[in-house]
Amino acid sequence: EEKLVGEEFSLMSFCDGEHCVHMPVVQDHKRAFEGDVGPNTGGMGTYSFANHSLPFLSDKDLSDAQKTNEKVAKELYNVTGTKFKGFLYGGFMATKSGIKVIEYNARLGDPEAINVLSLLKTDFFDICSHIVEGSLKNINIEFELCATVCKYAVPNGYPDNPEKGFIVSGDNMEASNFFFAAVQKDGNRIVATGSRTVACVGIDKEISEAEQKAEAGISQVVGNLFHRKDIGTTALIQKRIENMKRLRQ
Fold first, then answer.
1. DSSP assignment string, 193-210
2. Do residues 76 and 90 lie in contact, with contact meaning Cβ atoms separated by under 8 Å?
């Protein structure tokens, strides 16, 4: 197998079997701990930029990823005779020699969907109706021109030996920018069940402000939890930019 060296990113697209409408691209963070160390996880957090691209991607990188999703949608029909209708989620790596495909999913990404759907201006039900009807070309799908940062709070010991059964609390967790995952209700209490527990998304024109909002939100969640403080920070993003500059020299 070929080893891919570069920066990973996600591109999700609405697909009606013939047409794709692309969502803003997002970068996920799989490693459990700050500085991209520790075991792989389901995803500790994500960020997106207000221009719906990422600072380490060229215009060609973005265009190639979008064209790849479109080609995959067409080939699914050519090979199976069935039009794929739903969400096409491509995982890509930006490398020295262009973008490479890592994986595909027939679903929305977690937590990538939290970033992009929080920016969606068009009615989600209308989009789904057009997907089913095969008429995506007849609807104008718009996203806010804002940056987003999403951070997950996860149980201590996650992912290998996570704690579970403890109460999760916080002052503002009923706000619209909080998203519960691996929890269950026990009366009026919220109990963690052992996987990623709750996510908080920050939204702003500037990614630095979005990061501060996400950090402030997730930091107020109380429980046997931890999160990555570095996701969406200027230092981490600059590290990504410098990495791609070195690779492309």
1. -SS--EEEEEEESSHHHH
2. no
Q: What is the widest separation between alpha-carbon atoms in the chain?
A: 58
Q: Is residue 149 classed as helix, strand or coil in its secondary structure?
A: strand
The dihedral of CA 150, 225, 177, 103: what is its sign?
A: positive
Provide the pairing of β-strand 31-33 with 167-168: unpaired
Q: Give yes or no for a contact between 139 and 127, defined as CB atoms under 8 angstroms apart.
A: yes
Q: Are 210 and 147 in contact (CB under 8 A)?
A: yes
Distance (Å, whole) CA 12 – CA 172: 30
Both tokens assigned to 134: 């095969």
Question: Which residue in the block uniquely carries the two structure tokens 């789904």?
Answer: 128
Give 51-81 pLDDT, tens digit per residue.
999 999 999 999 999 999 999 999 999 999 9
- pTM equals 0.95
